[in-house]
Known about the structure:
By secondary structure, the protein is of the alpha/beta class. It has helices at residues 3-10, 31-45, 51-56, 62-68, 73-94, 101-107, 121-131, 143-146, 155-164, 178-187, and strands spanning 18-21, 112-116, 139-141, 171-175, 190-194, 208-209.
Amino acid sequence: MNMQVNVWYTLPSMRYDAVFFDLDGTLVETGPLWDIATRRAVPEWTEDLSEEEYRSLGGALLHELLAEKGVDAGTIEKIRARRNEHMLPLMREHAMWREGAIDLLHELTKKRMGIVTSAPLVAVDALDDALRLRTYAEVIVTGEDMRPDYKPHPKGLLIACERLGVDAARCVYVGDQQCDLDAAAAAGMDAVLMRGIFTPDTVTHSQSVSTPGELRPLL
């Protein structure tokens, strides 16, 4: 019996009150856009990151990495602001839904659904301009809402549950990184790993899928 069949039978009749999604890498293919913007912004203010460090940002926050390298808080904020300047037009012009994601969201219109992302509100607004995120998400929690307690802290997910008036134990969070899985566990909700192009091979989970379409039997 292969992994996907095992996953489908893990939760044969679970009825979630709400489904929450991570955004970048899970619903939308923005990882390469973040990479371009970061590579443009970082060298303007501080030393270049290594190739390994740039790639690690698929699942880590830039400010945490820069802080670990000894960059002061003021410079980090300047780097983040400059990255956003590069990023926003890229998102508005080139952001795309992950293949199969929009079909899944159409099928979930009768279920309460939200997005919980560490991305800043300006990035979410740019994606909304391009893809109309708020057409599908009843609530969107951004980095500003959870600051300074970003994933894997459960704060963002608990805020989403509070806004929808649902019990975390009756919800599920879908993400593509280890921090997503850890945040869900800390919040007391189920999680599904939906592997993406920036998901490290070392990240594994008992409930794991490779495409949005494979989520249907779980949700």
